Amino acid sequence: MMRKILEEWQKALQSEISFLRKFGSKPNIILNGQLLSNKNGEYRYYFETTINLQIPTGSKIRIEIQHIKKEGRILSSEGRNVIVKLDGGFGNVIPEAELFHDPWELLEELILRLDEVKKSEKRLERVKRLMNPSTITKHPKDKIKNSLHELILRSKYNPVTYVWGPPGTGKTHKLARTAANHYFKGHKVLILSHSNQAVDVLMRETVNFTDNKSKYEEGKVMRYGLQRNVKSHLPLFTDQLLMEKYPGLASEKERIFEERKKLKEDLSKSFSRRDSEELITLESKLAQVLEKIRGKETKFVKEASVVGTTLSRAAIDETIYKKRFDLVIIDEASMAYVPQAAFAASLGKKVIVCGDFKQLPPIASGRSSLITKWLREDIFHCSGIVKDIHHSHIHPNLFLLNEQRRTHPVISAFTNQYIYHSLVKDHESTLHSRKSISTREPFGSHPSVLLDTSFTGQFCFTGNSSKSRMNLWQLLLSFQAIFEATKDGMTSIGYVTPYRSQANLMSLLLEEMFEGYDELDLLAATVHRFQGSEKDMMVFDTVDGDPMNRAGMLITGQNSERLINVAMTRTKGKFIHVSNVNFVLNNISTTKTLRKLVDHQIKKGEKVSPEEIGSWIKNQHKKLTWSHAIKTDRVFDEMKRAKKILLSIPSGTELTVEWKELIDQLKDKVTIITNTNSSGIESTISFPFVAIDRQTLWVGMPFEGMKGTKPPAVAARLEAPRVVEEFLAQIMTRGDL
Prior knowledge:
By secondary structure, the chain is an alpha/beta fold. The protein has 27 helices and 30 strands.
């Protein structure tokens, strides 16, 4: 029976691979491609990118130009440039192309690992215990001292322990101490998670605890693989261990990295054949150094007692999957494919599966029934351990962490009641401990705010290339809230939205508006990047609004509850929900979580109306200013000095005499953008704006083009060339640009 289920998993994975191969993922736009070398049919290209790409070296990729496809691998992906190796060439210069990166290589490896599991009766039995959790627990209940002690006892006596860890309930704290407890007893422990960040955090907590107990030994607790913005004063990460034990090798790697970085910067300014040849030489040297480092890292893993890495890495790296462990801990298991979790469980005598099935599920692209059954649902549901949870019945082998210490009670009041069915409560300390955050601007003394954008204009649209919804007005209001917070000393802020294009645009905006952005604790992303993290303040931008005639599936679909839950529970002390209330009330059912949230915030008096914009905006950024939309002196002056003007005039707009005269005066440098076929460049945009020299954007002008608005008449002036460029690229075809 178990082998049959494994075969179903393999078929589901193969079906997902087939889908990805056929349809691929969303493309990344790459620009200014230059051929670096062509040797034995292997073409190496350098490209610039529109956003920071983080694709692991060696990953399979595909480049497309007008339906011509070439496959290859990533040689380097850092910042806003990539170097790729392709099986065929496109010529010496490539102005623009699309880069696709799909994870099917990882899935192919997982299929092979499942074949290995099928051949081992011992490993099959471990998977069987995972998928059919016993209703009988073996740990001595009379010896339990506290929740941490209970988890340690459960992991000691029960072959499988499921842990339900809602946000802020001390999951990382307890898992780290449980891992350390097994390490102290001489056990081998493997810590796994879907995300690099979650592994980093849990491993750092584990190594710090061993150090506090004076039981730390260098190299015994080791984070294997890619590190993400988590620091450790102890040599926990492989690069730290390398520097400690093999400083010459580590220094050589860093020296080559620095040389390569400088060469890439030179190439981005002025491409030269000499620089490109030197870059190829450096790549060859780096490959040799990295191979040596790989050998040292393998040695580190063999000697370590506690190893942390990602689920994907565990399935493709024999250093991990050929090693056997006493305990496997799977963190954030709700985001992992069931076959991933099962394979991981087969590597250890005992397993802890920890996560929150009220947060994000696994992501799969294919449409087969097996994909829906096994790749779109989490291990908690597929094992049946939470089948009676809606009746508040908790399975004996499901351990609930039920006291949250992260989020201000005013914010958690919604998630505790509507998402966790009152099974989770607030620790008594949260009200006092989060006061220093909740009282900061914007909206001082209000931990939770619904920033309403009703009747401010028809700003929601679908991007041309992204096919993803965007909302320029809500983007700018969200930025203003972030800016107000930073001016009042807030340093840890997240911006989350369901739509990737909106998140990317905010990332560009933050980068342009804040000096030293890379050093700040600011993150703009879709909800998946936030799982497992926390911020002092979260801004949740729902994007949807007029003139759309229906709400998007991302905020109303099957997983919308989980998405909203993650968005809210990342914050410690302030939650700002930017939403078009009128649109939500008219387009979203009262049974949907977003509607419940809006109703809850209105009931609690947390709504801030659009007419209050003058009271809460206290600090205007020099590159983003808000003004009365009727006052045209400044925009007229800038238009007269401009070289090129793009002017959006939606259908039905009756311009004032002053606007007509100015447009007529400047007609040689004005291009009209319209959503009619009458004249100018056709676009679906339904709001007015003025783009000046592709540097500055006046949003909401000419005001006569605004539809469905109520006072006050507000316009925004944004001076951010990269954001303006990306916005224009999303509303017009590149031919028009």
